[in-house]
Every structure is written in C-alpha cells, then in structure tokens.
Design a protein that fits this description.
With 410 residues, the chain is an alpha/beta fold. The chain is built from 14 helices and seven strands. Strands 2-3-4-1-5-6-7 form a seven-stranded mixed β-sheet, with helices on both faces. α2 (49-61) runs antiparallel to α3 (72-101).
Length: 410
C-alpha cells in the first residue's frame, strides 16, 4: 500500500513538473513573440547639452508676467515663478524623454541584447541612464523650490534676487552634469548606428574561420551588389547580399571569422557571429577551406565545425560547403605555388581525409574563381524547403535559448 502510494505520488510529481515546463515554454514563446529588433536603432537622438542649456536660458528669460496684473510685487512674483518654471521644464523635459527612450535591457530581443553587450557594457548602459535621470530629478526639485520661493517673495527686490539666484544655480547644476549628458549622447550615437536584423526575412549565414571565402560566396550567390553593414565595436564591415525566390527576398550574409576557442576568449567581432547563430532564425552554411591559404589549419577548422554543429545544427538548418576547390589537390585542384615548398605529406593526408569526410557528410564543393558548384549552391539555397525549418524556429521563438536566459535571470 505504501509503495503504491509512493508510486502514485511520483507520477503526480512527474506530470506536475511536465505541466509546469509546458506552461513555462508557452509563456516564454509568447513573451519573445512580441519582441522586435530595431529597438536600439530607435533610441533618442540626444541633443548637445550646451544647446539644451542655451535654448532653455534664452526662452525662459523671455517669459513675461500674466496680463491683467497691476500690483508691481504680484507682477514680479508671477514673472519670476513663470521664468523659473520655464527654465526647469526646458532643462528637465528633454532629459526625461531621453531616459524614457532607452529600452530596459530585459525587454530587448536576445540578438539586440547581445549587440548591446558588444557595443556598450550593460552596466555602463544602465548607470549612464540612471545618472542622467538623477541629475534631471535634482534639477526638477531645485527648480520647484526656487519657483515656490519666488511666488512668496516679500518684496520686488527679494523676488527678483530669488529668480536670479535660481537661474544661476540651475545653470551651475546643469553644467556640473554636462559630462553625463554627453556620455548619454555618445552612447545613443553608437546604438543608432547598429544595423537592424530582419527577423521576417529568410536568412542564410555563411560561417567559418577567417579568410575561408565566405564573403566571395555571398557575392556569388547574391543578386546585385551586396551591402556592407558596419558595427560601432569593429572596423570590419559585414557583407550582406540578397536573392529572390518567386519575388520573395532572402538575405545571405557573411559572419565574422571564428577561431576555435571558448566563447570567453573570443573577441567582440567573433561574438557577433555567435550571436547571429544563437538568436536569429538563420540557415547556417559552414565554409571550410582546405587550400592551406586561410591561415587556419584543417584541424582547427574541423574542430570549429564540430563545436558549432554540436551547438546549433539541431536547432538550425545546416549546410557544409568546401571553398576554393581549384587550389585543393584532394578536390581536383592544383596547390598554390606559394605552398609547394612547405606542403608536406602530412598536410596532403589530413586534407584528403577532411575532404573525404566532408563530402561523405554531404558538403558541396565550390570554386568562386572557376564557377564550380556555384549554380548548384544557389539551387540549394533557393529551395524553399530549406526555410521550412526556419519558419518553425520563428514560431517556437527559440524556446531553448530563452529558457536558458530565463534560468539565468532567476
């Protein structure tokens, strides 16, 4: 009887945990579904702090008393209070709008959150916004206090003195915080320059080690001249092309070259490539160069491929491509002359083994120079069935990714 009760309790716990997980997945999916990219690109265009100050001083000093007042003291009280209120509004209102215009980090799409971390340290981002808001609140309090004193001035002279003192101290308080406002301005300039990921456009991402021919392949399969996307945290542009399937636009992009190492040791441009695979609904095309000219050994390229396959192939459409076949003897090409004196038998054997393994895994053999395999690659990329799984990814909104994020937040 006790064992039966224990078994029943275990079943109830199992179903309870499963129901809890399914509820959590639905919640995560619904939350991420409403997330859009381009939020960082639309942060406020922050004006120069000196322009805000000069404009505020000029406009508020022109304010006059309310018509109909005849008593000199009442005129001065009214004018001084209105001018102080006007200056307070002129200085504080734009700062308040700026603060509201910067999104909270936890409300960003995962890819834009990754871009933020690469562009501006999240702690610096939050601290800069908070400091500007604190300065705004401090000036708001000061302005209200001086306005209240002006409304209750006992004489015209005293009221005028309160107004002049208020203007002087409000200006000094603003100037003291100018460095914070300029920091916010520079941060906004960087974020507004970020390219916007196209979540609704089927996308192919060329990935691999540096100098393996990703950019050349992007140009070869693109219709027209590819664009170059620039990011504020690197001088290297990311080439982005497109092609059409029955008038529907598809994006094909290269990604920054990756070195086989742990994420913590990767630089910002490498982490952009990882973020693309991690958070965007892309088809991953891994490009391997066996010519010996890329600067990355065959062993390291295969190790990188294995790492990325383990992390992403189960969640993304995956395609292998061998590039520069005209320079790879194992693929029917001729070794580059610059390598003839240093190419060893070991190099030849490792290249042959890699070529055999990749071809048996379904890798496509290409040469941009000779045009080998390019039309076949385009045919594969233009097959709509390849993007069916991308659409499924968009529907699920990367539940597993967001579960990890949710766990970290908890």
């Amino acid at each position: 009887s006790s064992s039966s009760s224990s078994s029943s309790g275990g079943e109830e716990t199992k179903y309870s945990l499963r129901d809890e997980k399914e509820t959590k997945e639905r919640t995560i999916s619904a939350t991420t579904k409403n997330m859009k990219t381009g939020v960082l690109n639309r942060v406020p265009n922050v004006a120069q702090s000196k322009d805000i100050l000069l404009s505020g001083l000029k406009r508020s000093s022109r304010i006059t008393h309310t018509s109909g007042l005849r008593v000199p003291l009442l005129k001065e009280r009214n004018k001084s209070a209105k001018q102080l209120d006007g200056l307070t509004t002129a200085l504080c209102k734009p700062l308040g709008e700026y603060v509201k215009g910067f999104p909270k980090i936890d409300r960003l799409h995962p890819f834009e959150k990754a871009l933020l971390e690469l562009t501006v340290d999240p702690e610096t981002y939050a601290k800069t916004i908070s400091e500007v808001d604190q300065a705004r609140k401090s000036m708001l309090t000061m302005g209200k206090e001086y306005s209240s004193r002006a409304k209750n001035g006992k004489t015209e002279k005293e009221t005028k003195a309160v107004r002049e003192e208020g203007f002087k101290n409000m200006e000094a308080r603003f100037v003291k915080s100018q460095a914070k406002f300029e920091k916010l301005k520079e941060m906004a300039k960087k974020l507004r320059r970020l390219p916007v990921a196209e979540l609704e456009t089927p996308t192919v991402a060329m990935v691999g080690a540096p100098n393996v021919g990703k950019s050349s392949l992007v140009r070869s399969v693109s219709s027209g001249v590819p664009e170059v996307n620039n990011y504020p945290f690197t001088t290297r542009g990311v080439i982005m092309g497109h092609f059409f399937i029955e008038d529907r636009r598809h994006v094909v992009t290269d990604t920054p070259g990756l070195i086989f190492r742990v994420d913590e040791e990767r630089n910002k441009i490498e982490r952009l490539a990882i973020a693309t695979l991690e958070h965007l609904p892309v088809c991953a095309v891994f490009v391997t160069d066996l010519s010996g000219l890329s600067g990355t050994s065959v062993e390291d390229q295969l190790a990188l491929r294995e790492e990325l396959r383990e992390r992403f192939a189960s969640r993304r459409p995956w395609l292998d491509v061998l590039s520069k076949c005209e320079l790879v003897p194992a693929l029917g090409g001729k070794l580059d002359e610059s390598l003839e004196s240093t190419w060893t038998e070991k190099d030849a054997k490792s290249t042959e083994a890699a070529a055999k393994m990749l071809k048996e895994s379904g890798a496509m053999v290409t040469s941009v120079v000779d045009g080998v395999g390019i039309s076949e690659l385009k045919a594969v990329l233009e097959d709509e069935q390849l993007y069916d799984s991308i659409l499924e990814l968009k529907r699920s909104r990367f539940r597993s990714d967001n579960e990890d994020d949710d766990e970290e937040q908890r």
